[in-house]
Amino acid sequence: MEEKITNILREYGLKESEINIYLYLVGKKELTAYKIAKDLKINRSTCYDVLERLISKGFVSKREIGKTNYYSINEISSIISKLKSKEIILNSLMPELEKLQTVPEMKIRELENVEGRKQFNFNVFKLFQKKEIDSIYILGNTPSPTTGLGIFVEKLIEEGIKRKLKFNYKAIWDIKFKNHEIIKKFKKVGENKFLEKIPSKSGTFIYGEYVAFLFTIDKPYTIEIKNKLIAEEMKSYFNHLWKLAKT
What we know:
Layout: H1 2-12, H2 16-25, H3 33-40, H4 44-56, E1 60-65, E2 68-73, H5 76-101, E3 107-112, H6 113-129, E4 135-140, H7 149-163, E5 168-174, H8 181-186, E6 191-195, E7 203-207, E8 210-216, E9 220-226, H9 228-244
Parallel strand pairs: 4-5, 5-6
Antiparallel strand pairs: 1-2, 3-9, 4-7, 7-8, 8-9
Helix pairs in contact: 2-4, 3-4, 6-7
């Protein structure tokens, strides 16, 4: 029986010295540390240390009579009650800790063909319309007509005027497209700047918590990523290039 109790207490996390003193106190009334140390043949200072640990863990109580401290075990029900109280406290703490540890949401989707590109433009416009985004940054290698950008810009302008929505637009294009008709339309929305020989063959859209990469191989593709961390990193990269670009 005692071996079973010892194994349970060991599993709970008590050390051998703590188990020995605890089991010695079982069935006894209040004892002094001197008496416990003498009977168990252990150093008195060690005995005091172990008793204090048992008190902190809820297994033992201390009562002072005159100038002498007496020690006795707590009822198991009392120990369980304290553990339950701690469990409740820890459970209430979990939601707050989860908020601190939450990994930014990650969603990725792929849209193909011209229709997929137009769907992408429509989705961005709907986010703007719902006031879920108030800015868009574009790093463009080409304002290809297959992107539907012209209609997209016109819708932004129309919606912005109608609903008096504030919208922050910035774009960096390859300088060879400086006089392109679509880019002229974008001037009505915000600012355009230019760099020579942009090395990327894809266009990059950064808006709210989204980043999208637009490119064409055998057909138009759009890779859209929703992730706050990635969006913030790409925005920092864009702002660095913005300082280097020219009007």
